[in-house]
């Protein structure tokens, strides 16, 4: 596997400066949440660093991976916002040599969440939302809630993201609804 230094170099090459700085902050927040929740620090570091690796790739790169791996045609109705995680984790696997399935799932699910999320998946989903560079109304509440209880943080983000998508008339990916039903409504 690549060392942290080698990973950092690849990410610096793949991302804009501001996106690169975001992934470094997500790494720091993922490590903080891992410490608070008894999760593996090294895995949190790698997952935090790699979560947005594919964010700046052209659409054609994702379409190629969708074809190569025979992924669900449903993906074709969405775009980069969904692809960079849901498809991008395969680029992290193939290009960065990450093999740990928990890390790969954390990257896959970092935008939409999922019905079932491991501790590490929850950590990356939340670290992306509350990293110290984020400043949206409610981010302080989100940090407080997440530091107190990771699953409560997942519910908070999921509810607010769904409200945001609806208010903007954006298409909601089915997995985002699954996450809502499992983590917010709880009756799934
Ligand atoms: O990559 P980041 O900007 O760090 O953050 P992200 O990957 O969590 O989210 C990227 C965007 O994706 C964000 O504006 C919210 C949006 N998003 C989340 N769920 C859905 C979605 N967009 C659509 N269209 N559908 C979804 O279900
Ligand atoms: Fe992302
Ligand atoms: Fe996110
Ligand atoms: Fe991100």
TrEMBL record:
Domain (HD): give its ranges. 19-133
Give the keywords, sorted. Answer: Hydrolase, Iron, Metal-binding, Nucleotide-binding
Q: Does the keyword Nucleotide-binding apply?
A: yes
Top-rank taxon:
Bacteria
Q: Which Pfam families match?
A: HD (PF01966)
EC number of this enzyme: 3.6.1.41
Q: Which PROSITE patterns match?
A: HD
Record's keyword annotation contains Metal-binding: yes
Q: Which reaction does it catalyse?
A: P(1),P(4)-bis(5'-adenosyl) tetraphosphate + H2O = 2 ADP + 2 H(+)
The protein's name in its UniProt record:
bis(5'-nucleosyl)-tetraphosphatase (symmetrical)
State the encoding gene. yqeK
């Amino acid at each position: 596997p690549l060392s942290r230094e080698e990973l950092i170099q690849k990410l610096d090459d793949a991302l804009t400066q501001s996106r690169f700085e975001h992934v470094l902050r997500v790494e720091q927040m993922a490590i903080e949440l891992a410490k608070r929740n008894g999760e593996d620090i090294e895995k949190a570091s790698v997952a935090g660093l790699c979560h947005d690796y594919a964010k700046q790739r052209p659409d054609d790169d994702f379409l190629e991976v969708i074809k190569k791996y025979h992924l669900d045609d449903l993906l074709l109705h969405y775009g980069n916002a969904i692809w960079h995680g849901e498809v991008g984790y395969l680029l992290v696997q193939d290009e960065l040599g990450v093999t740990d399935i928990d890390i790969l799932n954390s990257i896959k699910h970092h935008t939409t969440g999922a019905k079932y999320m491991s501790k590490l998946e929850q950590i990356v989903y939340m670290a992306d939302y509350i990293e110290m560079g984020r400043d949206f109304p409610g981010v302080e509440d989100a940090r407080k809630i997440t530091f107190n209880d990771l699953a409560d943080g997942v519910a908070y983000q999921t509810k607010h993201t769904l409200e945001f998508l609806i208010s903007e008339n954006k298409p909601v990916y089915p997995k985002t609804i699954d996450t809502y039903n499992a983590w917010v409504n709880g009756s799934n």
